[in-house]
Amino acid sequence: MGAATHYDVIVIGGGVVGTAVLRTLSRYQLKAALLEKAAEVGWGATKANSGIVHAGFHNKPGSWMARLCVAGNRMYDQLCEELDVPFIRNGVMMVARTPEEEKILRDFYQQGLENGVPDMELLDGDAARRLEPNLSEEITLVLRAPSGGIVAPFELAAALAENAAANGADVYTEVEVAAISHGDDGFIVTSKDGGTWKGTYVVNAAGLFADDLARMCGLDAPSLIPRKGEEYILDQRLGDLVKHTIFPVPTPKSKGILVIPTAEGNIMIGPTALELPYKDDAATTAAGLNEILSFTQGLVPKISRRDIIASFAGIRAGSPAGDFIFETSHTGKAVHLLGIESPGLTAAPAIAEHVLQMLREAGLPLEEKPDFNPRRPEVIRFKQLSDGEKEAVIKENPLYAHVVCRCETITEGEIVDAIRRGARTVDGVKFRTRAGMGRCQGGFCTPYVVRILARELGVSPLEITKRGKGSELLTADAKLYLKGGETDA
Amino acid sequence: MRNTHYTDVAIIGGGPAGLAAALAARKAGAEHVTILERSHELGGILQQCIHNGFGIHRFKEELTGPEYAYRFIPEVEADPGIHVYLNTMVLSLSSDKEMTAVHPGHGLIKLRAKAVVLAMGCRERTRGALSIPGTRPAGVFTAGTAQRFVNMDGFMPGKQVVILGSGDIGLIMARRFTLEGAKVEAVVEIMPYPAGLARNIAQCLEDFDIPLYLSSTVTAIHGKDRVEGVTVSQVDDNWCPIPGTERYIPCDTLLLSVGLIPENELSQEAEVPLDRCTGGPIVDENRETEISGIFACGNVLHVHDLVDYVSEEAEIAGEAAARYAQNQAAAASENQVQRQASQLAITPGEGVRYVLPQRITPGAEVDLYLRVMQPMDDITLSLGGVALARKRQVRPSEMLKIRLKPQHWDSLREAGAVQGRELCLKAEPR
What we know:
The complex is a heterodimer. By secondary structure, chain A is an alpha+beta fold. Chain A has helices at 16-25, 64-83, 99-115, 125-131, 153-166, 210-216, 286-299, 344-361, 387-396, 412-420, 426-433, 446-457, 478-483, and strands spanning 6-12, 32-35, 52-53, 87-88, 92-96, 121-124, 141-145, 149-151, 170-172, 177-183, 186-191, 196-204, 225-234, 245-247, 258-261, 267-270, 274-275, 308-318, 325-329, 334-338, 403-405, 410-411, 476-477. Chain A has 3 domains: 1-86 and 150-224 and 319-378, FAD/NAD(P)-binding domain (3-Layer(bba) Sandwich), CATH 3.50.50; 92-146 and 226-310, D-Amino Acid Oxidase, subunit A, domain 2 (D-Amino Acid Oxidase, Chain A, domain 2), CATH 3.30.9.10; 382-483, BFD-like [2Fe-2S]-binding domain (Arc Repressor Mutant, subunit A), CATH 1.10.10.1100. Chain A contains 13 helices and 23 strands. In chain B, helix 1 crosses helix 9 (307-326), helix 5 (143-153) packs across helix 6 and helix 6 packs parallel to helix 7 (198-205). Chain B is α/β, with parallel strands linked by helices. In chain B, the strands form 7 sheets. In chain B, strands 1, 2, 5, 6, 7, 8 and 20 form a 7-stranded mixed beta sheet that branches. A 5-stranded parallel beta sheet of chain B has the order 10-18-12-13-14. Chain B has a 5-stranded mixed beta sheet with strand order 23-21-28-25-26. Chain B is built from 11 helices and 28 strands. Chains A and B meet through helix 7, strand 18, helix 9, helix 12 and strand 23 of A and strand 7, helix 4, helix 5 and strand 11 of B. Strand 23 (476-477) of chain A pairs antiparallel with strand 11 of chain B, so a sheet runs across the interface.
């Protein structure tokens, strides 16, 4: 792979930050490309993100985190409306159970005021329980911020990339950057399998690996701190357990273990925060689960191990400075985004604007595209339609009458649409449509999804992967395998 | 809405339970029976069960799954009073027996029925439900999903397999994978005894020298993109892994055969009360749920060991649904209130995991279906203190069936048990 085009800007890393940068660049008359290591965008820390759009009281006044979190939060309504991504301002609550915690909580309230967080209030335990009846009786004081929200993080990254591509940006997946060189013609980015991309500016949004990439550019970058978080998803039956996202009083390392309503209607519990000596351990553990359960049961006693339907883990790009780090190299022509950990998702749209400003200052000419279309074509979510609307979409396309995922009522029409928007893998379909995310976890629909992917992509089912090369689901044609004709698929 | 249909008996699901219920409803006089089936063909899960062993009780022959299904399908298709909607997914069901379904040709269908038979079957328990720690690579499948890939789609989902859980589908798949040329390294069972039928242990594992590790479980899954191996540990009496007993087994596939769960999402929408022990609706001897005119049978009601019993149960439900439809809903509904008041509750007692039906009319000559908690030898099964049957050997994997006969009712009346509103079924050592 590789491209003959000389790009004005090459963005490396297709997480929510990289895709937000790409989409922001696509507003202007320039040629931008995104290089993503995985089979699809949003596969790294973004996919494993808690999905919380933070209110902004967690961070030190004046820090990048505080400023960009509050600014990013304000951008979410318009962004998600334009991109048709599920976003709900469900509000957040930080809860205290002891006089010591109450004191810390009041400090956060003050911090929120300084950061410009709107409409915060302090509630006593009973007042909070009137809003959230399942909160523990031990909770005595609550900081409530109604501007907090929840978003589907993977869908957001996918939508940002899709909209950027619709506005002329190029998205390359399965491109792992191995080297970056700089000469008279600008940057040459070389991938692991030898492809090259040329560009004038580079934005390093490589998340957990941004420090490695910065070093490829000759920067003496501080090492990021890989910090694993495990999350557990509860059956949709418990979807109304809490409406607000429930935070404990945080620890110095993380915002603590939370109870999170997701934009998709499940409750999620987690994450843990375990510092790792390496970057590739996304395994869940029995210890992690026990820690999460015992902690969250202290916040919301009704949570039970029985209700867990799925688990996952992701690795945050922990910042050694305790704040987002914006570095440049090559006289500003390479911008490095380091340590974009929480509240990185919230801040992403504001980070993109900040990066744009940095590139402008380094000389990138920015002229707006007159025909920029901020809107992504609407996604049909069959289950949410009224009977009349269902009737209408089926009439137009009978594939919307074939329910493939019975647990979440996801139709073949939605799966085909997801593939046409860029899904290439079973997980890609799953995270875009929710097919396979329900209580049977893909038991019934996986064979159908594999078949639909193979048909739409024009490949053999043997080539269909869970999430990119090496994760093929099927290993051989059964008949050939038995004859010994095909021992390696 | 464009299409509103009316039917006497609506049957949700065209698997073995739905097929037998439809035929029984017709024989009992229902004029208009409708089967709503989400797949493109009738037969349900039987279509992917290409091994034999079906129908030994009912047909005195060893049939394959599809053969068993075809003992019913031609008759259903030939019957002008049975209307089959394939590729039709029921989206909603209300307690007054109105359904919304979706079909590629007809669009949204609204169906009103005098009686409804729930026959939606069950689903498999998943990794998430077990919370097995580790990474999430490709190569972790439930046994039934793997069965579909191999038997229906013609693809092997792996070459070197470990199976967690000794449920029947897992055992069948151990043999299938072996026959298809793959290597099955082990079947791992957390309990000290197998979960599947004894005949499947013999025919699927022992005949192929596949090791069965009892009192063991998978404590970690390894591999980034594809499964590379699993850690298996022994467990103590509380099912907790014993440190130091870990062993690593290389494999590219982990199959899960760790139980089946009746699929009652639609039932719950219609406010049908469920039994916590079975996971299915609470029913009386007619398989009528606590919602008047809604009946249930097959694996949506409780997970069966043999399809023969599914057919038997579905015939009871289908026939009763037809009678209900003929008596007209209103009258039957009133009767049901009275009947429910006079019915006795049957509850599982010592040694019994569940018993079905959960409500019976005093004096009714009915078969009770039950499963025991653990393997036991030489036991007496008793109801309300009255001995019903003696069994030499009972296993949780096997469903027991005992007939409640007139002499049992006599003894129950003598013992004064009938006046009590609850009868407890016990399995006690002799």
